[in-house]
Amino acid sequence: MKQIDVCLTPDLLHLHTIENTIVVVADVFRATSCMVTAFAYGVKSIIPVATVDECRQWQERGFLAAAERNARKVEGFELDNSPFTYMDEQIRGADVAMTTTNGTLAITRSRGAVKVLVGSFLNLDAIARYLKTEPYDVMVLCAGWKGRVNMEDTLFAGALIDRLKESYAMAEDSVIMAWRLYGQGKDNLPSYLSNSSHIRRLQRLGIQKDITYCLQHDLYDVVPVLRGNALVSMEV
After folding, report:
1. Is Nucleotide-binding set as a keyword in this record (predicted)?
2. Which residues touch 107 (CB under 8 Å, ≥6 apart)?
3. Angle formed by the axes of helices 151-164 and 197-204, to 10°?
4. Cys staple from 42: which of 92, 98, 173, 228, with CB 3.0 to 4.6 Å?
């Protein structure tokens, strides 16, 4: 039987084997939610990079560029890390370069996998349906916060496990933990997450609407996949 695993933070990725595995990267607040939204609204590709300098180099080549650090937009870039930014007509057909504190770093660290997918609650069903058709093991890589575990990405992992539990064996205790955590909170995720560290961080910035939006399930039939150095959207 295929197995599903969870890596709770990229700083633990060296303890996992990903060579024969599909990695699903989750940065719910807000990078992967932005990416899924961008593809749903017609962006052509997204190049995830680890550093602001790399992102600026793509910007100088004519790409729209998004840079976020510590949940704030970096000065000098066109786009920020709010999913509502990616509902604008300017992104339709565009190539975007993006760097974020946690999410894009997690994606770049996953390049040794069979495939790297971008997951969020927004495309949860599309990701689950796609994975059921694949013969490979799966690992959810939670982007976390600067190497630390966070609740929202772990809850996404649990939600995906819940959708796949009939098709995949639970590989490690982190899988059981994520699944049980989601079981406790799934009926009211905003309330369950209300005292989590990143919720408090975002609320200080006055962006409650981003939080509410990112916790919605199954809005888009979009599965972003890393092809070369760029994310593109697969049909599912």
Report:
1. no
2. 25, 48, 116, 118, 226, 231
3. 120
4. 92
CA angle 192, 194, 197 (to 5 degrees): 115
| CA–CA gap between residue 131 and residue 165 (Å, rounded) | 12
Q: pLDDT by residue (tens digit) across 172-222? A: 999 999 999 999 999 999 999 988 877 777 777 777 899 999 999 999 999
How far from the centroid of its chain's Cα atoms is residue 194's Cα?
A: 20
Handedness of CA 81, 214, 2, 15 (dihedral sign): positive
Give the integer Cα–Cα distance in Å for 227 and 29.
24
Cα dihedral 144, 116, 47, 109 in deg (nearest 10) = 50
Whole-angstrom Cα distance, residue 202 to residue 107? 22
For the chain, the 3-state helix, strand and coil shares in percent, each to the nearest 5, are 40, 25, 35
Domains of the chain: 2-234 (3.90.1560.10)
d(CA 103, CA 110): 11
Residue closest to 198 by CA, chosen among 79, 86, 30: 30
Q: What is the pLDDT of residues 137-175, one digit of tens each?
A: 999 999 999 999 999 999 999 999 999 999 999 989 999
